[in-house]
């Protein structure tokens, strides 16, 4: 509570402050590309709009001044964040669904509703966020809350961490939610060796060259998962997801080695292969790449939300690497572990490069030379020219509650990406939720869902044998 009181005091002192808008934030809220993050929280009990008003005023708004700011320009016509008085009720939406439907039907309505609001722009004349309170049961809970927040306010890690900071532990609300230690140093990414330096430099040159080709217009091939349509970010979307127990993932990881991210990348590779096989599309000879996002905060390995808040984690501190997708002739009997092995090999090589560390300095230099509009084109082109984007968030261990309502499940998506297919993963309390957002009238979401489910089941069987209960939604 002391943290919230201090935040309120600071907010009052800085009521008229003008906060500079970073080039990256300008880039992600422009006419060229505008991204929003939707965080879907399913609750065990129904939350009403009166409780959400109290939650926003006392817990959500105090986490950062950007939640109480609009985008404005200063005397030099440079975009900035300007503090305003927030009319909380303007930011709350309570949708009305048909009455007396089954839980399965309401679950579909929630997914369709999230898809609908993902395609709607946030009003520019008020702070760039909304909270949607859904009072209907789903397969995961009795009610849901959807946070819709502009990516300009911060990247997924800082935004979701702010949301988590407003939540409480069910077992002891006085304690902060704990995060897994995600330091990349612990995984050896920072190890230095004279023998490793030369190949690392060569890999860096290769990655930079490939990045320049993408920037200059080298596009991935059209395929069953990439329409290549101009303006695909404005097309209707569909959402499919599966939940996998972390215990199952750890069992596979212990058998095949590598990291959890390697395994998830292998599942994504295999899912794409299965879907293209079902659609009669052959990947051999095509150029297919994933744009995998990395959060540079992982270098510091934060252990809890409060520690992150004290470290001023706000903003967009992400890097990315282009990861090739294994292409095949359409073989039906491929060893499922082949895709995990390929993911390990490719990701190991990508980690043995300085490219990830060069992304942010390059973005700063690009902004200084050409301005934020060219940076927007750079980001848009990199996304548009690749097959899919992959982003992940690591959530807390403990069961959490929102305004006293225990959370049963959660996931997130990024809207506004110029791609037919994107993947997001979110781990929480022993479960990992793999979510695919896809171009609705191009990719068959039901078929893609079954391919995601089959991909992990086959990988688990090949690595561990025996049966597995895979939680799906």
From TrEMBL:
The reactions it catalyses are:
a long chain fatty alcohol + a fatty acyl-CoA = a long-chain alcohol wax ester + CoA; an acyl-CoA + a 1,2-diacyl-sn-glycerol = a triacyl-sn-glycerol + CoA
Output the Pfam families linked to this UniProt entry. WS_DGAT_C, WS_DGAT_cat
This protein's major location comes to membrane
- Domain O-acyltransferase WSD1-like N-terminal residues, every copy: 110-263
Gene Ontology CC annotations of this record: endoplasmic reticulum membrane; plasma membrane
Keyword Metal-binding found:
no
List, for all copies, the residue spans of the domain called O-acyltransferase WSD1 C-terminal.
Answer: 314-459
Q: In which pathway does it act?
A: Glycerolipid metabolism; triacylglycerol biosynthesis; Lipid metabolism
* One of the record's GO molecular function terms: diacylglycerol O-acyltransferase activity
Q: How does it sit in the membrane?
A: Single-pass membrane protein
Q: Which InterPro entries match?
A: O-acyltransferase_WSD1-like, O-acyltransferase_WSD1_C, O-acyltransferase_WSD1_N
Q: Which UniProt keywords apply?
A: Acyltransferase, Endoplasmic reticulum, Transferase
GO terms under biological process? triglyceride biosynthetic process
Subcellular location as annotated: Cell membrane; Endoplasmic reticulum membrane
Task: List the PANTHER family.
Answer: O-ACYLTRANSFERASE (WSD1-LIKE) FAMILY PROTEIN, O-ACYLTRANSFERASE WSD1-LIKE ISOFORM X1
To which protein family does this belong?
In the N-terminal section; belongs to the long-chain O-acyltransferase family.
Query: Can you say what this protein is called?
Result: Uncharacterized protein
Q: What organism is the protein native to? A: Aquilegia coerulea (Rocky mountain columbine)
């Amino acid at each position: 509570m002391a943290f919230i009181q201090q935040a309120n005091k600071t907010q009052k002192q800085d009521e008229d402050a003008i906060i500079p808008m970073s080039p990256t934030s300008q880039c992600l809220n422009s006419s060229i590309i505008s991204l929003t993050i939707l965080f879907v929280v399913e609750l065990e009990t129904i939350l009403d709009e009166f409780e959400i008003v109290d939650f926003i005023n006392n817990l959500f708004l105090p986490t950062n001044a950007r939640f109480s700011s609009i985008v404005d320009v200063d005397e030099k016509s440079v975009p900035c964040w300007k503090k305003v008085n927030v009319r909380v009720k303007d930011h709350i939406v309570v949708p009305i669904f048909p009455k007396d439907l089954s839980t399965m039907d309401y679950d579909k309505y929630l997914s369709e509703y999230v898809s609908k609001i993902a395609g709607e722009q946030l009003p520019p004349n008020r702070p760039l966020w909304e909270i949607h309170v859904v009072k209907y049961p789903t397969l995961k809970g009795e009610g849901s809350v959807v946070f819709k927040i502009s990516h300009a306010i911060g990247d997924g890690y800082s935004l979701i961490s702010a949301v988590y900071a407003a939540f409480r532990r069910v077992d002891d609300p006085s304690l902060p939610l704990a995060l897994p230690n995600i330091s990349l140093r612990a995984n050896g990414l920072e190890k230095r060796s004279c023998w490793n330096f030369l190949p690392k430099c060569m890999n860096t040159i290769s990655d930079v060259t490939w990045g320049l080709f993408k920037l200059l217009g080298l596009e991935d091939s059209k395929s069953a998962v990439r329409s290549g349509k101009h303006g695909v970010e404005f097309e209707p979307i569909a959402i499919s997801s599966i939940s996998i127990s972390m215990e199952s993932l750890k069992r596979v990881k212990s058998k095949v080695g590598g990291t959890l991210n390697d395994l998830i990348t292998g599942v994504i590779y295999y899912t794409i292969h299965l879907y293209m096989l079902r659609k009669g599309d052959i990947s051999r000879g095509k150029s297919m790449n994933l744009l995998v996002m990395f959060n540079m905060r992982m270098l510091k390995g934060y252990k809890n939300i409060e520690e992150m808040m004290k470290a001023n984690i706000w903003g967009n501190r992400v890097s990315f690497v282009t990861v090739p997708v294994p292409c095949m002739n359409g073989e039906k009997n491929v060893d499922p572990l082949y895709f995990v092995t390929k993911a390990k090999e490719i990701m190991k090589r990508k980690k043995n490069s300085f490219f990830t560390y060069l992304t942010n300095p390059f973005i700063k230099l690009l902004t200084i030379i050409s301005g934020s509009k060219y940076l927007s084109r750079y980001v848009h082109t990199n996304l548009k020219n690749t097959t899919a984007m992959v982003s992940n968030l690591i959530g807390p261990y403990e069961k959490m509650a929102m305004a006293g309502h225990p959370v049963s499940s959660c996931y997130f998506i990024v809207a506004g990406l110029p791609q037919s297919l994107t993947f997001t993963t979110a781990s929480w309390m022993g479960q990992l939720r793999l979510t695919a957002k896809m171009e609705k009238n191009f990719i068959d979401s039901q078929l893609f869902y079954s391919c995601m489910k089959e991909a992990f089941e086959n990988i688990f069987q090949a690595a561990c044998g025996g049966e597995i209960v895979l939680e799906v939604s």
